[in-house]
Amino acid sequence: MIFFASSQLNQADLVAQEAEKAGAVEIRQTKAGVEFKGDLETGYRFCMYSRVSTRLLQAIFYDDDVRDADELYESTKEIPWEEFITPEKTLKVTKTVQACSYLNSTHFAALRVKDGIIDRIKEKFDDRRPDIDTENPDVTVHIHIHQTKAIWYLDFSGEGLHMRGYRGLQTDALLKENLASALLMRSEWSRSITDDSTGVLLDPYTGSGTIAIEAALMASDTAPGLIRKNGYAFMRLPSFDEDLWEKVKAEAEQKRRTAIDNRDISIYAWDISPLAIKISQEAAKNAGVDGLISFAVKDFSKVAKEDVPSARGYIVTDPPYGVRMKGDNLDKLYKGLGDSLSENFKGWKAVILSAESELLSNIPMKPERVNTLYNGELECQAAHYTVFTDEEKEELRQKNLRKKEERLARPLSDGATMAYNRLKKNLDEIKPKMEAEGVTSYRIYDADMKEYAAAIDFYEGRWIVLSEYAPPATIPAEDAARRLDELVLATERATGIDVENIFIKQRKEQKGKNQYTRLASSNHFNIMHENGLKILVNFQDYLDTGIFLDHRPIRKYIQENSENKRFLNLFCYTATATLNAIKGGALSTVSVDASSTYLDWAMENLKINGYPTNIMNYFYKSDVMDYLYGTYDKFDLIFCDPPTFSNSKMRAMFDVQKDHRKLIKACMMHLNPNGTLIFSNNFRRFRMSEEIMDEFFVKDITEETIGDDFSDARIHHCFIIKRKVKVNLRPKVRIRKDDSEAENGQR
Q: How far out from the chain centre does Cα 673 lie?
């Protein structure tokens, strides 16, 4: 028998482990789950023990050459459905359809499969047929179509495997059971489980108790199938072997009794809400593990050292985030969490799950690793921390100091010395100016010396982004590597920023898909400040950090000129311009970009500043030209900062020099008569179209929009564009009554 166990993204490896333990062979992971082979007992065991999978399907037929809906129907009708369903049973058909050219509707695929099944059954049972039941069918058939390949499955598990059945009344914290299990499996706590004990586990933000309950089920070897309230779909199939199922259940019961009798289990669940604790206790009772968890009403940010249940242990938790709390309260909560960890839980390990990874920057520790997990469709990051004891911290500090001392004791090469001297000179000149302006993130070096071609940006006095410009092909690779190393050493000495906080990137000509390429998947965001706003920056995952520092004066201009205006931000990126318009008093804002990633980032920027993202501030995922030609809205202030070049799949091919005339004219269609368009781009050889200058009032403000920290006068070009005021030059002529009469008489 061939099975397919579905899973959430990034959890297939855990499901593969579950399949192996169930006795599966020929296990193959896919993006959506795990395919494996096994007998009926393997399927029963998987359903009994799986904590992470969402559904188990049994493959019954395969066709790799289905080219239209009629062939899909005929292939379906060839399957001996009478072996699985009779007219007395009820039927449901589900589907997944991927990259299939002959099906415009996935619903139509399910309909043709349903027709094929019904017609086959009618032929075999004297024109009798099963009824359709979409709520509680006896048999569910799932059709999976990818291009010309089709696989027909029987639903083996039925209701989602993650639905254990212990939930009753719930809090707002709706953490799915299988995600809680995956989180625990990814944690160090799961490795602490032995035959006679488990490590101490604490969830200080227990919510509905899901993490603590799933931990208790794992620690007590309680298979999820033992507490499942509803039966499995395989129990209604003709192949159901009740004796075999009872054997699997009996073995699971014995494992549970052995674990409870022999293991020392210490699990604690805290929450500031008495209602949450009451709900959690009731759910634990339903799951049969209430005696294994110690519940208490506690505010984690205010716990004392005497509240800590053990010298060492494990915290696995899912604190509240945006959908459950608003504004600055979240920052305070996460800061309190981090402070409590650092002060009271030295020697512990912690896993913190958050759907808003920027909140993790409030925790004053660097995660050892970050896993991306999914709570349904919601992407979450699980950050793993070790909370070092004072002794461990001191040992690490001394080790790092020794490394740093050894590094700093090495004499700088002539080239590194030259770079160091230039950086110190730049800092002495730039830093006082930036401090006087209240600027905390700025450029300190911009390829000042040809031997060291890089841009160096200083963020918040804590981080450095060193962007190396790709060396010419004529420069040997070893020479380029040496120069980069020299520049990094010089930067560390000149700024005092440790090398682990210096992020190195290489800049080269970016075209097409490359300009959106993700470099890493840390999902770690930090917060910088500008113009009274908080802005999320990411130093690892993308070529750019989420903000263009050279646009700082432009953003300030927008903030100072947006009061009571309707603002449009085109190619909005992470919407830093939109933030400034809102702070400046804009009546409403619209932000447009073709990238979902950047729009999500943009909305998070608004959220951390306490601005709404669904009332008066609107976001559109669209090609900019499609948006401009497809709407009629008018705006008082428009900011348009297009890429130099793009031929990505997210938008039509665009070249700013060739296409800016068309783009600007489209923008002007949406500008109110007295409105202003701010047009910016970073093409170094850009020349404004003469046609645009003839038709509109155009003022080049490039020079005044480049800050003192940028020595490159061509870092960007910026223009103010307005409609020309029409002046009536015809003289007014007054006609006397007698002249008028005379003239009329002549006519």
A: 40
